[in-house]
């Protein structure tokens, strides 16, 4: 079943999250990624480039309805700032991208960090 995908930036993330939470039954995943470089069509983040195809494959093959909110954290310089909004957000405390989060009832119930978000079996486990 193809996933519903929603793209958002840091500045409108909370609104997008609230909207996604209201979309009804199904799994809600948040995928935090480095921004895409328009001239190459890929993220500046090599781990994101490696993980994205795996994550999209798994969520689109899932038998359950999934909403995937892709949250673009900014360019490399913006992301590296210690006081980046998503690094300091008490709900997420991001340390790296990509980070894949399963979100239920206002909290994290599953999480894959940058070093494991490309592993198909772990992505399957987070949605099972």
TrEMBL record:
Q: Which SUPFAM superfamilies match?
A: Thioredoxin-like
* InterPro entries assigned to the protein according to its UniProt record, in alphabetical order: Thioredoxin-like_sf, TXNDC17-like, TXNDC17_dom
Q: Where does the Thioredoxin domain start and stop, copy by copy?
A: 11-127
Its transmembrane ranges are none
- Record-linked Gene3D superfamilies: Glutaredoxin (3.40.30.10)
Pfam families according to UniProt:
TXD17-like_Trx
Please indicate which superkingdom the organism of origin belongs to.
Eukaryota
Q: What family does the Swiss-Prot or TrEMBL record give for this protein? A: Belongs to the thioredoxin family.
Q: Under what name is this protein listed?
A: Thioredoxin domain-containing protein
